[in-house]
Amino acid sequence: MSDPWMERLSDYLEDDMPAAERLALEAHLETCRDCSVVVSDLRRVMNRARQMDERQPHRDLWPGIAKRIGATSAGAQPIRRRWSFSSPQLAAAAVLLMTFSGSTVWLMRSAGSLPADGPIAATAPPPATVTAVNVRRNAAENYAAAVEDLERVLSAGRGQLDTTTVRVIEQNLAVIDQAIAQAQRALLADPANLYLNTHLAETMRRKLDLLRQAATLVPVS
Amino acid sequence: MLLFLAAGIALAASQQIDTTVTVERGQRLQVNAYGGEVTVTAWNRNAVRVETVTSGRQRIEISASATTLSIRAQGRHGTSTEADLRISAPAWMPLNLSGVNTTAKVEGIRAPISVETVEGEVDVTGGDGLISLRSVQGSISLKGARGRISVNSVNEDVQVVNSTGEIEAETVNGEITLEAVDAAAVDASTVNGDITYAGPVRTGGRYSLSTHNGDILLTVPEGTNANVAVSTFNGEFESEFPVPLSGTRKGKGFNFILGSGSAQVTLESFQGTIELIRPGGRKDRERRDRSDH
Description:
The complex is a heterodimer of chains A (221) and B (293).
Chain A: H1 9-13, H2 19-31, H3 33-54, H4 62-69, H5 88-98, H6 100-110, H7 132-157, H8 163-189, H9 194-217
Helix pairs in contact in A: 3-5, 5-7, 5-9, 6-7, 7-9, 8-9
Chain B: E1 9-10, E2 15-22, E3 28-43, E4 47-54, E5 58-64, E6 68-75, E7 85-90, E8 95-107, E9 113-117, E10 122-125, E11 128-135, E12 140-143, E13 146-152, E14 158-161, E15 164-170, E16 176-179, E17 182-190, E18 195-198, E19 206-211, E20 216-219, E21 226-232, E22 236-239, E23 245-249, E24 252-258, E25 263-269, E26 273-277, H1 282-292
């Protein structure tokens, strides 16, 4: 990781680089396989990020969920962000953070469990410095809190759901948990693997999606 | 302004209902049935016909506004109930169908369609525009659709056939089959199941097929222009034709470019085989034979 260009690849992809430096980096990319592969990978993640960003929740789930967990709605606003990342783990954390954009961040903010000035929000001005460690820690904490909230909703409403539905949801959560565990084990052996990082993040997103979907099935009493 | 047409057809005993309501363009059909089998079939009249047999404990409410014709099956005191509804509607009429233990079958509607159920299969032929089909415990089958397609199950298979547009297909524990589709953007994802994509890869298109525990089969027609990224951790890659590798990544990941490389194809399987085949080739014929049986 001694290549000085590596940390500049994110700026390059975001077109946030002086022209001369850009030309120099492009010349470097023609000869440096490591950097060109990372650029290719990051482009892919960013393309996916843009796709995910456009995806809106099917409906606003917060009012129903808030009622179930006894939280109050705080008129939260949708969050926009600027992406800047240059390592596989950070890219994966970014993908995971994006899963909060539709309804979970909204849920977390409305429930008051996410600081209003947390690093997820980056409208204007963009964050001066967002370190990989901070983003990853926040992504993990927010994810765990969201999962916990939704599991609580599901647990409380379990008796109101059809037993077959509960069984199917639990089986599928187990399938996802197993996939998450396998991806985590694979990452221990190869922590810099971008595919494994994004795959883990995507699989965690699937768990959140399923929990959210299950929570909406619980009748509001 | 809400225009009330008819409501509260309550019956004391088992009785056959056959009601037809005139509708106008601009109205959408909204059907809500807690359980049972709902069939919506297009016909060539500007009217909606509802046929069902109710028991004494059921009632079918039909109400209309300038924008919506609503059909609701429920118990006599507002409780949940099952009802088999046979509905005929104009092909131009957008449809929203929701239920819990409901099986949905839609045929011939050429308008946006939304179906959402928990325990029941969804089988749709047709659809134009925004098409969203969701079930937790039922399989999803969509044929002959056009538009922005979103198909989502949890515990069953998802299939899209003979359809065009943008496709988003997702399940957790099931296979995804995209057969004879012509899509500029595809995002197909499952955790435990195979994914098959058989259709053209459009210039400038975006295709993402991802599974954790399953195989990916992609038919690649001659003359395809695509930048293909393949990633796996514990799986294999096979191709019926030679691929020119242009870059490798750590683990079992690599890229290659076909033709001009204008389309972006991402293939990811954590522990399954990723396979590229030619349409009409031996493996494609074998695949078709398997799906025919």
